[in-house]
């Protein structure tokens, strides 16, 4: 069974979790916050989450995890069959990450906690 390490407030954790749910793959969640503690470094060499635990070892970085899930579970594809169409999907996903999601983080403190951004 796959094990997803991370925490629910992480957009990256939720991207992986959604892919696992959409593909109807069995998995368990282990709450884990990224840091340099020995516990975290045992599953994530950089101390980052999410991490996917597999029978073969641990996989880090959201887009790499998503590609692994897609490659190892082809019965319920989340991506188009055409290589060009897949590239278009990954392009849009990367643009959302870099130009929408990352800049929006600067507003989190004010929006979520009522503090200054």
Automatic annotation (TrEMBL):
GST N-terminal domain sequence ranges: 1-77
Domain of life: Bacteria
Entry keywords, A to Z: Transferase
GO molecular function terms noted in the UniProt entry: transferase activity
Any Pfam family hit: GST_N_3
Transferase as UniProt keyword: yes
InterPro entries hit by this protein: Glutathione_S-Trfase_N (IPR004045), GST_Omega/HSP26 (IPR050983), Thioredoxin-like_sf (IPR036249)
Gene Ontology CC annotation, any one: cytoplasm
Record's keyword annotation contains Transferase: yes
Record protein name field: Glutathione S-transferase
Natural source organism: Pseudomonas syringae pv. japonica str. M301072
């Amino acid at each position: 069974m796959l094990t997803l390490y991370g925490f629910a407030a992480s957009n990256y954790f939720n991207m992986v979790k959604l892919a696992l749910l959409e593909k109807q793959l069995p998995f368990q969640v282990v709450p884990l916050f990224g840091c340099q503690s020995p516990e975290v470094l045992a599953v994530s060499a950089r101390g980052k989450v999410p991490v996917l635990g597999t029978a073969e070892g641990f996989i880090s970085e959201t887009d790499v995890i998503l590609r692994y899930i897609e490659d190892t579970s082809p019965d319920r594809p989340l991506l188009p069959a055409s290589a060009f169409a897949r590239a278009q999907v990954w392009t849009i996903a990367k643009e959302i990450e870099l130009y929408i999601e990352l800049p929006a983080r600067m507003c989190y403190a004010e929006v979520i906690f009522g503090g200054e951004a």
